[in-house]
Each structure stands twice: as structure tokens, then as C-alpha cells.
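USER: Write out one fold?

ASSISTANT:
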Amino acid sequence: MKKSVKILIGILIAAVVVVGLYFGLNALFPQPKQISMELEAVMVLEDGTEYPCTVTIRGELWEKSHRDVSAGIHAHDWEKEGIFIDGVLMTNYFLFMPEEEDSWTLGNNTTNCTLYLNRDFSQFGAEVDAHAIRQELPSQTAHVFLKSMTDAQRQEVLTLFAR
């Protein structure tokens, strides 16, 4: 064999090894995706009155975690990252989704809020104090849902909160 063919084969083998290492290490040590999304939502008061609002989710989305969960959202800068409803921070905790679950749920005693979020971000629910979101409203339990959710999906989330 010519020397140039041997060099070319050596380069190809090195390239295969490098690509294999890259994918192998990413599988063992996954990197988070930066996530920043604003979702149109409604806040529903106890009497059925609806107020439009925005749910903002910012932070890192981990697809796999060393904490025996399949996904999680984590914020590093609590003033800018986390889950917000109309600018009010709803959580200052990690959110983790166990392998067997299809949603994150979180109880949070700092804002007296419970959150629900499914894997593909198509369903979101929060049980909050209306006054925490809108200062002009009296203190009462309110529920926040994405505008795109059906009544059946809303009822499903309410059932989770009732547990």
C-alpha cells in the first residue's frame, strides 16, 4: 500500500473514534438545553371569571439526570429563570420528572402554589393565590391553564391537584 493510502485510512479511523467518543460521552453525560418560552394562559377565579395571563418558563431542560429522573428544569438565576405567571416567580425549586411519570408536579410553600407541566409543554396548570398574580384581586384560590387546553384537559389537571 502506498503511504498516502495508509495516512488516509488512519485519518478515517481517527475520525470514527472521535465521533464515537463524542456520542458516547454525550450519552453518559448529557448536556442541558437552554429553554425560554412564553405561553398564553388564563387565570380562572373561583367564580369562573377568567383573566388572560402569560406563563414564562426559562432555565435549563435536562433530558436525563443523575437523580434517577428522566427530565428536569433547573434555574441558575432565580430573578431571571424559573416558572413565572405574569412575571411572578412561581417556584424557586428544581422541577424533576420521574421516569414513570409524564409530568412534573411541584408543591411550593413560598408562593403557596402547585404546578403541573407535561413533557411536551402542551399542558400547564397552576393552583395559585390570585392576589399573588394580580394585586387588585382579593386573596383566593385560582387556577391557571394554557389557553389552548380543552375543558377535559383542565379537568384532568384539577383532578391531579385534588389528590
Summary: The helical segments are 3-28, 130-133, 151-162. Residues 3-28 form the longest helix (26 residues).
